[in-house]
């Protein structure tokens, strides 16, 4: 029975597996699969890094350009306001004064001077064009209505000029008042190209498209590749962009939209709200992200191809060695199964026959480790480069942000820094319960100082004044700000009303002791009037405390100046 079973088992062909096939596929998978996995990991990391880089660059450029355009428009508006203020004191604005304005601000295309009904009285144009014989009435223009309603200087939305046909324009206008009545309106027009062209060209080299929307969501400027032109209405898209926009000194809102580029192409978008009510959006096609990955995919494919060639050669070599050794091993085992015995020299020889296979596997392992180390070095270097670029960009953005909050003349915080400091200190006082006080300072007769000594001396006096105020402050966390002109605000965190009064008296003395000559002042030297207020239980926001400080300042000025009032 035993013998028959052995015979039957010998004659039946049982399905089995091939050691050579398994070894071949094992070598292929062991070499290529790690390389493929590491390559995919590298591509995934590069994709995430490039995506984050695009978002960070969009965010930084959006905030930087929004701030630059705000400053540019504010500078143009300041020039118009200055001429308007001179008109308040001197009467009508002559064409010579308008030409002086256009020469001082080359971006302005033309300037007009109208009566309260919008009729053009005087006009000047940089191209030498003469106004129409019957100039159009400006009463229906948006900028004219805003000046009438607000009685203050305005920056208009985009429009077409009634005076000269010069494409899309933005108006900067200011009222000329006399005894509380509107006597006239001064307006200058700026072509939208001069506002956005330089920024758009620079952004275009980074593959970013600029989109500017005015307060009515009309297109002020649309870069190449966007689906709108100047003066187009963006409709619901503009409403959604405005809803998503944040102030320029906050982090902008980055998103992915499909309604800004032709053919509804997906795009990365960063949106920022400007100080004048406009919205700035930077757009870059999402396809840019994939285009940057194509070379890396090619490198991965080449690496896999080279690895495949090496693996095939190794498999052929190892298969040949394995065949020789397996044939000898099978012959020896067959002889043993038929009753023979392996010779002792064969037993000692068997490990030597399998050694080439072990050496081949070790060789393949060494190749795989070398490939892994090379890929890891490339990945580490790339991540290091990305981290350095990101850190450099972050530092540059932080420096720009600090400069945008500081008054260059006095090194005090400017209006933006004043707003941020007030909100932050108010929040800290809410959270900690610590007292908070504020001083509202106004240099006495400073306009007379400028009129007598000139603005250059006035700037020097402002610097000396700011230094005298700083010398009177005792705490390192006291904050000096200059919201504008000769007005200064000092925040005193941790100080009570009584302590703030002592600081205010000390500031008055230090300013007098600075002995800044001021012949146009009754004192003969520069002095300051100060209003003091402290945070009270019923205050809901910092404006309540600041309003009381301003009221105290008015009382100090009404009582004869050069004193402190509470």
Helical fraction equals 55-70%
Q: Looking at the structure, what is the overall shape?
A: flat
Order of helices and strands: HHHEEHEEEHEEHEEEEHHHHEHHEEHEHE
CATH class of the domain at 415-565: Alpha Beta
CATH architecture of the domain at 415-565: 2-Layer Sandwich
Any idea of the CATH topology of the domain at 415-565? Alpha-Beta Plaits
Number of helical regions: 14
What does this protein structure show overall?
Mean pLDDT is 82; it is low at 1-13. The chain has helices at 2-11, 19-90, 95-104, 142-150, 192-204, 235-244, 287-291, 294-337, 344-404, 415-432, 446-453, 455-472, 497-513, 542-558, and strands at residues 110-114, 120-125, 154-160, 168-178, 181-191, 209-213, 219-222, 246-247, 253-257, 267-273, 279-285, 436-443, 479-484, 487-493, 528-534, 564-565. The strands form 3 sheets. Strands 6, 7, 8, 9, 10 and 11 form a 6-stranded mixed sheet that branches. It is 55% helix and 18% strand. With 566 residues, the chain is an alpha+beta fold. It starts with a helix and ends with a strand. α8 (294-337) runs antiparallel to α9. Among the domains are: 73-193, PAS domain (Beta-Lactamase); 415-565, 2-Layer Sandwich (Alpha-Beta Plaits).
What is the structure about, briefly put?
This protein is α+β, with helices and mostly antiparallel strands. The chain is built from 14 helices and 16 strands. The strands form three sheets. Strands 6, 7, 8, 9, 10 and 11 form a six-stranded mixed β-sheet that branches. The protein has a five-stranded antiparallel β-sheet with strand order 2-1-5-4-3, sandwiched between helices.
């Amino acid at each position: 029975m035993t013998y028959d079973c052995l015979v039957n088992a010998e004659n039946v062909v049982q399905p089995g597996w091939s050691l050579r096939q398994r070894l071949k596929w094992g070598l292929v998978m062991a070499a290529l699969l790690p390389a493929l996995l590491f390559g995919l990991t590298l591509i995934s990391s590069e994709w995430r890094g490039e995506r984050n880089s695009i978002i960070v660059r969009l965010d930084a450029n959006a905030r930087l350009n929004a701030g630059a355009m705000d400053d540019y428009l504010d500078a143009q508006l300041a020039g118009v306001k200055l001429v308007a203020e001179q008109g308040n004191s001197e009467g009508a604005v002559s064409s010579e004064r308008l030409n002086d304005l256009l020469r001082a601000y080359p971006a302005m295309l033309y300037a007009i001077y109208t009566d309260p009904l919008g009729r053009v009285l005087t006009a000047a144009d940089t191209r030498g064009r003469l106004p129409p014989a019957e100039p159009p009435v400006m009463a229906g223009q948006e900028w004219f209505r805003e000046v009438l309603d607000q009685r203050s200087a305005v920056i208009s939305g985009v429009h077409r000029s009634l005076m000269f046909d010069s494409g899309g324009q933005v108006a900067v206008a200011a009222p000329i008042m006399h005894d509380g009545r509107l006597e006239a309106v001064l307006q200058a027009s700026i072509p939208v190209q001069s506002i956005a062209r330089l920024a758009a060209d620079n952004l275009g080299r980074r593959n970013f498209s600029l989109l500017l929307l005015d307060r009515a969501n009309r297109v002020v400027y649309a870069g190449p590749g966007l689906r709108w032109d100047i003066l187009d209405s963006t409709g619901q898209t503009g409403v959604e962009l405005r809803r998503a926009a944040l102030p320029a000194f906050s982090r902008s809102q980055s998103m992915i939209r499909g309604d800004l580029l032709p053919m509804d192409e997906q795009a990365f978008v960063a949106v920022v709200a400007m100080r004048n009510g406009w919205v700035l959006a930077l757009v870059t096609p999402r396809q840019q992200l994939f285009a940057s990955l194509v070379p890396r995919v090619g490198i991965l494919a080449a690496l896999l191809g080279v690895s495949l060639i090496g693996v095939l050669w190794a498999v052929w070599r190892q298969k040949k060695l394995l065949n020789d050794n397996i044939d000898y091993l099978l012959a020896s085992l067959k002889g043993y199964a038929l009753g023979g015995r392996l010779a002792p020299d064969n037993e000692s020889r068997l490990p030597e026959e399998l050694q080439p296979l072990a050496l081949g596997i070790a060789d393949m392992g060494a190749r795989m480790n070398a490939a892994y180390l090379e890929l890891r070095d490339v990945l580490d270097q790339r991540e290091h480069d990305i981290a350095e670029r990101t850190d450099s960009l972050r530092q540059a953005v932080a420096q720009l942000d600090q400069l945008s909050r500081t008054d260059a003349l006095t090194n005090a915080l400017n209006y933006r820094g004043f707003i941020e400091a007030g909100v932050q200190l108010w929040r800290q006082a809410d959270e900690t319960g610590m007292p908070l006080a504020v001083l509202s300072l106004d240099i006495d007769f400073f306009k007379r100082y400028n009129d007598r000594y000139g603005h250059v001396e006035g700037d020097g006096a402002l610097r000396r004044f700011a230094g005298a105020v700083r010398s009177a402050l005792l705490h390192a966390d006291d904050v000096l700000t200059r919201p504008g002109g000769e007005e200064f605000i000092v925040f005193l965190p941790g100080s009570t009303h009584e302590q703030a009064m002592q600081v205010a008296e000390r500031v008055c003395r230090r300013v007098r002791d600075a002995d800044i000559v001021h012949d146009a002042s009754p004192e003969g030297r520069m002095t300051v009037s100060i209003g003091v207020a402290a945070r009270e239980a019923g205050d809901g926001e910092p404006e309540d405390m600041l309003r009381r400080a301003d009221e105290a300042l008015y009382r100090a000025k009404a009582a004869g100046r050069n004193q402190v009032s509470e």
